Amino acid sequence: MDTWDAIRSRRNVRQFDQRTIPAADLDRVLEAGRIAPSSRNWQPWDFVAVTERDQLVRLAEVWRGGAHIARAAAAVALIGPVPEDDRQRGWLFFDVGQAAMLMQVVAADLGIGSSHSAVGDQDLAREILGHPEDRTCIAIFSLGYPADRPLAPIERFNRRPFGEVVHRGRW
Questions:
Q1: Which of 134, 118, 32, 34 is nearest to 81 (CA)?
Q2: Quick one: which of 146, 118, 18, 112 has its CA closest to 59?
Q3: Using one digit for the tens of pLDDT, what is the confidence trace for 54-106?
Q4: Taking the complete model, does pTM exceed 0.85, yes or no?
């Protein structure tokens, strides 16, 4: 798949079939996050890749909308430093968001679906994932092969029209 097709193929997938993700493919997804751009090359992220079913089921409990994690072949928890102030918090979320998006586009390129989840229970996340006290779990995304239909480029997006979103030179 070329880059544009991978971008157009990525969609939120919350129902997965039972196939496991080959280790090399999961490593490629993680590598995409590792080499993502970040402000001043800060690289504030660590990733915890989870593939054990019992751990995935427990991890699904950290957010009320995280049930898809329990059914996934894998999940990636995005871990970062506890922000010192609002400025650092903004850059942290921006940088980690770039890493997450790159990982999800690479996953789509491999035919692997994904969906993101917030984290409401930081204590439970820390218990399951084992990250240190000076780190926080920013988000989790599930990975797996779609149960309903394979990923393919989407021709008609449910998005605001291009001319309504894009402004040239001025608003």
A1: 134
A2: 118
A3: 999 999 999 999 999 999 999 999 999 999 999 999 999 999 999 999 999 99
A4: yes
| Tokens coding 109 | 């390129």
Does residue 139 contact residue 100 with C-beta atoms inside 8 Å? yes
SS3 readout for the chain: CCHHHHHHHCCECCCECCCCCCHHHHHHHHHHHHCCCCHHHCCCCEEEEECCHHHHHHHHHHCCCCHHHHHCCEEEEEEEECCCCHHHHHHHHHHHHHHHHHHHHHHHHCCCEEEEECCCCHHHHHHHHCCCCCEEEEEEEEEECECCCCCCCCCCCCCCCHHHHCCCCCC
d(CA 79, CA 99): 11
Cα–Cα distance for residue pair 11/14, rounded to 1 Å: 10
**Cα–Cα distance between 51 and 30 in angstroms, integer?**
13
Domains and CATH numbers, the chain: 3-148 (3.40.109.10)
